[in-house]
């Protein structure tokens, strides 16, 4: 019944990352841009375009690449956390 979302902010020369886990969905991971958007690679887009069997299949695969099911599953918990204290982890160098 574990649910979580972990984000790593990008730093110079390194993409950020987002990890999400929800029961029944498992773990999902994607790279993120400086503003937090999910980054879909050129190879992922080429594979999607080559293998999609119609508009519905294309749209479904885009949702998978963007983690839509994980967003839907985790959204109620994000709202519940509005205003809650946040613990930021910092790298100590």
TrEMBL record:
<dbReference type="InterPro" id="IPR021491">
    <property type="entry name" value="DUF3145"/>
</dbReference>
<protein>
    <recommendedName>
        <fullName>DUF3145 domain-containing protein</fullName>
    </recommendedName>
</protein>
<dbReference type="Pfam" id="PF11343">
    <property type="entry name" value="DUF3145"/>
</dbReference>
């Amino acid at each position: 019944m574990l649910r979580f979302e972990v984000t790593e902010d990008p730093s110079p020369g390194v993409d950020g990352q987002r990890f999400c886990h929800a029961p029944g969905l498992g773990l999902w991971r994607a790279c993120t841009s400086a503003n937090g958007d999910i980054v879909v690679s050129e190879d992922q887009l080429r594979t999607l375009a080559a293998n999609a069997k119609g508009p519905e299949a294309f749209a479904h695969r885009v949702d998978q690449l963007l983690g839509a099911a994980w967003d839907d599953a985790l959204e109620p918990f994000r709202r519940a956390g509005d205003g809650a204290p946040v613990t930021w982890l910092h790298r100590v160098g």
